[in-house]
Amino acid sequence: MPMTLFAAILIALGGVCIAVQAPINAGLARRVESPIVAAAISFGVGFTILAGVALALGQGRSFGRAFSAEPQLWLGGFLGAFYVWAMVWSLPRLGTFTAICAVALGQIVAAIVLDRIGAFGLPVRDISVPRMLAALMVGGGLVLSRF
Question: What's the average model confidence in pLDDT over 27-37?
Fold first, then answer.
């Protein structure tokens, strides 16, 4: 199997995980009566699993290297925490389908901008008509998801 196909399948499965994670976290928020606590628990479980896997694979020293990373590279945790909290809070109000459509639109618009400026050392990619049309189509899907 070509690596690009494997990567596409892997990230599609990641998308399934996000769609399933959202209502699970919303249910946890109802149970604990706090979207913030639910997000913290979700991150705590994820941290515990990933730290355990890293240690099991002999990658424990990599944790120490994080302290010398540039400050902006620490923003990933903040952004992830905001995403999980926003999804937990929004899902009961929008429903899973509309919330995931909104996430997809946000990701596509941000990706177009990040590609254009070559953010975080990535190669610069031009804004093209097909990319803009794709964003508009997802935006249309978001609007339609409310009907």
Answer: 96
DSSP state of 138: H
∠ Cα 24 80 77 (to 5°):
130
Residue 35: domain span: 1-91
Per-residue pLDDT tens over the stretch 56-95: 999 999 999 999 999 888 999 999 999 999 999 999 999 9
**Do 12 and 65 fall within a single domain?**
yes
Let me know: does 87 contact 103? Beta carbons within 8 Å.
Answer: yes
Q: Are residues 22 and 52 in the same domain?
A: yes
CA distance 39 to 84: 6
How much is the pLDDT for 121? 86
Cα separation, 15 vs 143, in Å, equals: 20
Q: Are residues 61 and 49 in the same domain?
A: yes
Q: What is the CA 42 to chain-centroid distance, rounded?
A: 13
| Rounded CA separation 132/111 (Å) | 11
